[in-house]
Amino acid sequence: MTHDTRSIWRERLASPLTWHYLAFALLLVAAILLAVRVGFDWVAVDRHAEQAAASRQVELAALEAQTAPLRGLDKKVAATRDAMDSFYKKRIPPNYSSIAGRIDELAVKSGVRLSRIQYTHGAAGAYLTEISLDSGISGSYPEIMRFINSIERDPEFFVIRAMALTGQSGGLVNLRLRVSTWLRPADADASGLPAADSDSADSSTKTPARPEVK
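Structure (tokenized):
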């Protein structure tokens, strides 16, 4: 390097403008590196945000699926309560007398004869108490079938629990029949009926008299 060249470099290094250019270049490189780092961080944060959003969407969908049956639950409960009240009014007898009276009416219309009739009640439930009828029934086969069908189709709620053939002579058939219906617990308690586990002999004296069917 010649003396003139060294002189030029000294002058350039001594010039404030040279140092300004150098500082600017360093700052530019630092800014580029920082921008690259921020870009990488932004991509990572964006991916994490997408994953978090997707996870939240999955959790939300799961919660919606779990809570779907509960939507409108208050309306469903009210509708169920109304349906139960309607069923009680239309199909549950109001008292023991109406049960005995209705059974007698159906027997007379069908032409069958009931004997050894005994009513008992089961344990009181939260809403209803089962009332059982145990009786002998005699008549012709068509008469008995009419009686059974009339019980099953009656507006009052009757369920045939058991039937057993006890005898047959000519055209006369004898059966033992057990039928269940239900009363509200307070109505069952007021009926004076014996409990289902009471002794049968004792029950016969406690069973209230059946009302006459006119």
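The chain has two domains: 3-64, 91-206. The first helix runs from residue 3 to 14.
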